[in-house]
Amino acid sequence: MVNKQEIQSKMMQAVEAVRGTNPMAGSITNTVTINLVANAQLAVGGSAAMVYLPDEAEFLAKAGGAMCINVGTLLPIYEETLPYVAKVLHETGKPWVLDPVAVGIGSLRTKLLQQFKAYKPTIIRGNASEIIALAGLWGLDGGTEQSNVRGVDSTDSVSGAKVAAIALAKWTGGAVAVSGETDLVTDGSIMAVSYGGSHFMEKITGAGCSLGGVAAVYATATSPFIAALTATTVYNVAGKRAELKVDGPGSFQVQFIDELYKTTAEDIANNSLDIEEVSFL
Amino acid sequence: MVNKQEIQSKMMQAVEAVRGTNPMAGSITNTVTINLVANAQLAVGGSAAMVYLPDEAEFLAKAGGAMCINVGTLLPIYEETLPYVAKVLHETGKPWVLDPVAVGIGSLRTKLLQQFKAYKPTIIRGNASEIIALAGLWGLDGGTEQSNVRGVDSTDSVSGAKVAAIALAKWTGGAVAVSGETDLVTDGSIMAVSYGGSHFMEKITGAGCSLGGVAAVYATATSPFIAALTATTVYNVAGKRAELKVDGPGSFQVQFIDELYKTTAEDIANNSLDIEEVSFL
Amino acid sequence: MVNKQEIQSKMMQAVEAVRGTNPMAGSITNTVTINLVANAQLAVGGSAAMVYLPDEAEFLAKAGGAMCINVGTLLPIYEETLPYVAKVLHETGKPWVLDPVAVGIGSLRTKLLQQFKAYKPTIIRGNASEIIALAGLWGLDGGTEQSNVRGVDSTDSVSGAKVAAIALAKWTGGAVAVSGETDLVTDGSIMAVSYGGSHFMEKITGAGCSLGGVAAVYATATSPFIAALTATTVYNVAGKRAELKVDGPGSFQVQFIDELYKTTAEDIANNSLDIEEVSFL
Asked: Which InterPro entries match (chains A, B, C) (predicted)?
């Protein structure tokens, strides 16, 4: 039987382990939100490092405790770097987060995301449309052949991505986080629903990308499922609190980083969370 | 005869249409200010997406309502991507904004900006020196052979760019916005002068770049002239208001995004604006 | 004999010269913190411009008063651009700042940093581990063969980098700044120790990178040693003040830019500073 208290307790441990050890999680990520990703990773107690070249990525993969790959803005060198480092991560058993931003746009993006199937990203984080489209690309349950991704936005509901998320988690053996108004996190057998956040998170760029980076930080210290759920929960707590103090998206982003920094293990435990077993499949 | 009220009314409609439909305007833009461009586009109610590769740019050109091309920081792939997507935009009749940052610096920049002449950017936005130098590069009235651009800064006055702006607008059949202490926007037959803004806009990086991105958002919903003037006016309103609340450029940028988010259609109508016909040519 | 008052007086002159002339210092820098670098350069009164391509870099090297090269996130084109522009800077006698971020990671980074030895960067700015590793790479005193850089973080103490810093400064004939809890700046014969700053500077990304950019701004107006020390001092003043007004790293970054903007020549003179002659070598 699923024990909610045990999950909360593990999340609290992850938050404190990260604050206590300042673990490094390297990233290969997009140029739009790269600064926010790094600052969010630092705010929760981690260390950030970003690179583009294959051998530098390999170095970070081996030196860090986890890694985050975000395909938001592909550069030509990514064709070489990304499958190379994903293979290294997979073969060395390092946890890594995949953020399949804008899956369905462009031939290189499609090719890279197909290659990642074999390297089983430990955590997949995306909006509902991205999760559904990635499942479709990988030929898994709940996916659709046609991506409904609109640029970087989702046109599907989070609950509509449930089957795809479970199928992806079962394939990778890791966890999948679907971000939206309420967030789902699953390891294929347990489904967590996390509440909170803010409407301002859609009014700034990078709430999702930086969540992936923070999940990588937690993945250095705990299981993929707990890492993805901890990151999601911290974001929900910090987003909810930041919203109360601001009246625009510029101030929200600043306040949000402050709240990420201030969120405690206890805050995590007190945030609204539902846990259910995936029995319907 | 030019009707100022009609122009204000159209600007108000554009502001509300964007808030109501959340239109996507993709960008190929520089790495320095890419985050601010996206956040400004989101703040006014649009959706942002940035790419580098040719086929991804083509996708955004076709999927979005308009596009923004900013040549601030050229990467090698731009030699392929930019003329390709500009051709797609021109042939499909999609509105697009060109920001000819630092025209005159480097051979690729010069080559790309020359190629764009045939693809007639719907809106050209720049500082006075950039507008004069682009007119010169394209062999139009009011241009000079030698660029007076100093890095990314202007050394010419806005009023000194009037003839060049009109000539560029006549060539493209679209609109030209010249940013400075007061701003000019013209479609070649009407000249609008918009007042407001803040001295802090020169003390942050990206006020101009993000104005181009926001103009692209409005261009999804209205004519090039109204789009350029609406973006310019929103910036003047938000800049003026933000300045009253801050005492440094860091706070200004945050407050400016908040004010972009809060600027209403009515604020647009109430902002100081002069309209005159271009009769002197 | 070393005269502390004379040094303070020169720093005050540099701060005022920059505010009075708005000098341009171009950069080739990393994508993570590129926005902060530009905004920090603007906040102290300089002008910023960033590029990637060789001929554009050459243009900035010649048009600007100084330049900053930061190897944080290498792209393939850097292999061509960086040694080319470093040679131009060296041959034209233009001051330039090298920030050897993450020295020791990857083959291109190592190759580029080795090439820079001959082009004698006027100011080298890094954390303790980077300074020690660069001295090691260049075969100088105080260096180690093995880099202790962890991603972008230092694992060595500032005082432990003293010998390496002096050796680097003696080699280049310029200045070296070692950033940490207290900061060292040396020209090989004088050692300055500057106090202040904030614990939040480690909780945001780019405090170090932007310090390099600001040092380049001051290098347009004064000697390498005074430029490096002025930048370091302004950062210590602004960091200390910003910390008093905030309770998280998001607000800190905003306030820090405001304080950079507000720091006066007098504030520089009043900041805690020790000066000693390098007599022990």
From this structure: Hyethyz_kinase, Ribokinase-like
Distance (Å, whole) CA B100 – CA B113: 7
For residues C12 and C209, is the Cβ–Cβ distance under 8 A? Answer: no
Query: Which of C72, C109, C151 lies nearest to residue A47, judging by beta carbons?
Result: C151
Instruction: Please say if the pLDDT value at position B151 is more than 80.
Output: no
For chain A (length 281 residues), average pLDDT per consecutive 10? Answer: 90 98 98 98 98 98 98 98 98 98 96 98 97 97 77 80 97 97 96 97 97 98 98 98 98 98 95 89 49
B72 is in an annotated binding site: no
Which of C39, C77, C256 is closest, CB to CB, to B75? C77
| Residues in B lying within 8 Å of C, measured between beta carbons | 30-33, 35-36, 72-76, 102, 105-109, 150-153, 202-206, 246-251, 253-254
The pLDDT-based confidence of B155 (bands split at 50, 70, 90) is confident
d(CA A212, CA A231): 8
Return the closest-CA partner of residue A120 out of A140, A145, A142, A91.
A91
Taking one residue from A and the other from B, the number of pairs with CB-CB distance under 8 angstroms is: 104
Q: Which residue has the tokens 């504030």?
A: C267
User: What's the pLDDT score for residue A280?
Assistant: 57
Pairing type for strands C175-179 and C183-186 reads: antiparallel
Tokens matching residue B112: 């790309």
B174 is in an annotated binding site: no
Listing from the earlier edge strand, what are the strands of the sheet with B96-99? B47-50, B24-28, B66-70, B96-99, B123-127, B175-179, B183-186, B190-194, B273-277
In chain A, which residue's Cα lies nearest the Cα of B44? A203
Closest CA to C202 of B160, B23, A39, A188: A39
Among A35, A153, A202, select the one facing B35 at the smallest CB separation: A35
Tell me the C-alpha distance between A39 and B258, whole Å: 20
| Domains of chain C, earliest start first | 4-275 (3.40.1190.20)
What is the secondary structure of B22-79 as a DSSP string? --EEEEE--TTTHHHHHHHHHHTT-EEEE--SHHHHHHHHHHSSEEEEE-SS--TTHH
pLDDT in tens, B175-227: 999 999 999 999 999 999 999 999 999 999 999 999 999 999 999 999 999 99
**Range A184-187 contact pairs with CB under 8 angstroms and sequence separation of 24 or more:** A184/A158, A184/A159, A185/A225, A185/A228, A185/A229, A185/A232, A186/A162, A186/A225, A186/A278, A187/A223, A187/A224, A187/A225
Q: How far apart are CA A269 and CA A16, in angstroms?
A: 13
